[in-house]
């Protein structure tokens, strides 16, 4: 697992209070990890802080799974 | 007429996080006061408080028992305490598994005096340091006072009235009184009622200290600081926590064979119409509130065996309340016991009236009244009144009067009696 993936997973576990083994790359934040739309706003803010990236609202709306988040961060971080 | 009884209790306080532990510690004369540990208080005039203890403490609070990890992260501590106390009360009443029909007629009236001050403070600092895009999306609904009632209704599926009183330090008592009326009026058969508070944060302590409301003379002896009626008192000690009761329509409770602790028989309310922080110099608001509660109960002062005083340990307030009790009770003052449990747990602000109502109910159950700690040298005006100094007292307790008074000149009194 990449460094980005490890750090994303850690943030998701901490924010959503889910078991680490549930946070697979194909897990959907809403369907599999119990997040609601505001939880995703909070997760996106945490990713921005952690990786120093900016995730605009239209991009954030397309982040549905853990893999989506990792991919966006890897493609956009400085 | 529909009657209202208490069938469940829940407590989170500086003396424990379940009803029996808190009560045992209170009766044993323990104090919940200590140096502030939540933040560095070294630059504050007041450096002590009655904090709810951490989970690893002998009588600490483990938030994870009844509150999801995610919710703990999103909301202020007063909401966490309130959810837990409400859960305890429902469990105690045997009502955690109600049918949908039952839940349609079960509601919440759990308030707070101030609400999410620690979160408002910390998120304001985030706003100033990092800008608006870093403010939490959970900021608003994690701080709002009615979000204990909101969270509890969602967790337990309670679809009846969803209400939250905000009357400063009278909140807990008003919450119970208002909820009892909702049951009497037929709006609900079951109500979770009470209050919570947690404002032990830099701006909370500074704000009350600047209002000259907090004790500042006992920073080196925290357990001595809350001393209602004592000549050495110099202000209140901030507490935190929650108290929630299950109120239930009497026939409803009987029909399901519920354990009944006490009946809510009287509720009085008044306004001082005098000053934002100082009590009325003749205690007239306090008097009228108590008088109304007794009248509604159809009782006289001679029927009351115990008064749980507002008694915050402020120089002005204690004696004005005592004067009002003395005038109302007349000759009956010689037979009543009156104590301030704020001497042990501090002032829980919006939670106080609910927590103290639970103490009143337990006094009826166990026929013992909790003490006023640190009452070494009573003020002269206390002569002839049994203020239960230092140690709890076994005595007959048929009916009790609980007083709560708040900033803005808002007063509430409840009369509870054995059934």
Structure notes:
The complex is a heterodimer of chains A (78) and B (419). The mean pLDDT of chain A is 94. The longest helix of chain A has 15 residues, at 37-51. Helix content of chain A is 56%, strand content 0%. Chain A is globular, with a radius of gyration of 11 Å. Chain A has helices spanning 3-16, 37-51, 57-60, 66-76. Chain A has one domain: ACP-like (Non-ribosomal Peptide Synthetase Peptidyl Carrier Protein, Chain A, Orthogonal Bundle), CATH 1.10.1200. With 78 residues, chain A is mostly helical. Chain B folds into two domains: 4-262, Peroxisomal Thiolase, Chain A, domain 1 (3-Layer(aba) Sandwich); 267-417, Thiolase/Chalcone synthase (Peroxisomal Thiolase, Chain A, domain 1). The chains are: A mainly alpha (78), B alpha/beta (419). The interface between A and B is small, with 10 and 10 residues.
Give the count of structural domains of chain B.
Answer: 2
Q: What is the succession of H and E elements of chain A? A: HHHH
Averaging pLDDT over every residue of chain B, what do you get?
97
Which homologous superfamily in CATH is the superfamily of the largest domain in chain B? Answer: Thiolase/Chalcone synthase
Strand fraction of chain B equals 15-25%
Please describe the biggest sheet of chain B, giving its number of strands, its sense, and whether it closes into a barrel.
Answer: 10 strands, mixed
How many β-strand stretches of chain A? 0
Terminal CA distance of chain B reads: 16 Å
Mean pLDDT of chain A: 94
Gross geometry of chain A: globular
Characteristics:
heterodimer, A: 78 residues, mainly alpha, Non-ribosomal Peptide Synthetase Peptidyl Carrier Protein, Chain A, 4 helices, 56% helix, B: 419 residues, alpha/beta, Peroxisomal Thiolase, Chain A, domain 1, 2 domains, two-stranded antiparallel ribbon, 14 strands, 18% strand, acyl carrier activity (chain A), Ppantetheine_attach_site (chain A)
């Amino acid at each position: 697992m990449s460094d980005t993936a490890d750090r994303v997973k850690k943030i998701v576990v901490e924010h959503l209070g889910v078991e680490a083994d549930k946070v697979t790359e194909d897990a959907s934040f809403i369907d599999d990890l119990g997040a609601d739309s505001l939880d995703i706003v909070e997760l996106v803010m945490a990713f921005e802080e952690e990786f120093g990236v900016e995730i605009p609202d239209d991009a954030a709306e397309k982040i549905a799974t853990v893999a989506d988040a990792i991919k966006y961060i890897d493609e956009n971080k400085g | 007429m529909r009657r209202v009884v208490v069938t469940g209790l829940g407590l989170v306080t500086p003396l424990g996080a379940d009803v029996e532990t808190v009560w045992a510690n209170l009766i044993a004369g323990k104090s919940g006061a200590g140096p502030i540990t939540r933040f560095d208080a070294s630059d504050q005039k007041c450096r002590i408080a009655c904090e709810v203890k951490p989970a690893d403490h002998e009588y600490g609070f483990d938030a994870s028992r009844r509150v999801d990890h995610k919710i703990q992260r999103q909301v202020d501590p007063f909401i966490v305490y309130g959810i837990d106390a409400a859960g305890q009360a429902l469990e105690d009443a045997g009502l955690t598994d109600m049918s949908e029909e039952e839940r349609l007629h079960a509601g919440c009236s759990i308030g707070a005096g101030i609400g999410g001050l620690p979160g408002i403070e910390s998120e304001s600092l985030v706003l100033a340091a990092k800008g608006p895009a870093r403010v939490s999306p959970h900021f608003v609904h994690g701080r709002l006072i009615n979000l204990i009632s909101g969270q509890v209704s969602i967790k337990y599926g309670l679809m009846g009235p969803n209400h939250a009183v905000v009357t400063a330090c009278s909140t807990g008592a008003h919450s119970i009184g208002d909820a009892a009326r909702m049951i009497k009026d037929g709006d609900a058969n079951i109500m979770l009622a009470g209050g919570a508070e947690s404002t032990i944060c830099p701006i909370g302590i500074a704000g009350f200290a600047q209002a000259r409301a907090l004790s500042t003379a006992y920073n080196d002896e925290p357990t001595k600081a809350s001393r209602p009626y004592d000549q050495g008192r110099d202000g209140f000690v901030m507490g935190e926590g929650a108290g929630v009761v299950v109120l239930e329509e009497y026939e409803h409770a009987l029909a399901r064979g519920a354990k009944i602790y006490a009946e809510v028989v009287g509720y009085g309310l008044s306004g001082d119409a005098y000053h934002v922080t100082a009590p009325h110099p003749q205690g007239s608001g306090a008097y009228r509130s108590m008088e109304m509660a007794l009248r509604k109960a159809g009782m006289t002062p001679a029927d009351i065996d115990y008064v749980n005083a507002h008694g915050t340990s402020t120089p002005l307030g204690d004696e004005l309340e005592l004067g009002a009790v003395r005038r109302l009770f007349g000759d009956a003052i010689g037979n009543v016991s009156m104590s301030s449990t704020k001497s042990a747990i501090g002032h829980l602000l919006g939670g106080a009236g609910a927590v103290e109502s639970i103490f009143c109910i337990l006094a009826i159950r166990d026929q013992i009244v909790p003490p006023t700690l640190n009452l070494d040298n009573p003020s002269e005006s206390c002569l002839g009144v049994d203020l239960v100094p230092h140690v709890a007292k076994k005595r007959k307790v048929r009916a009790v009067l609980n007083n709560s008074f708040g900033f803005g000149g808002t007063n509430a009194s409840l009369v509870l009696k054995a059934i």
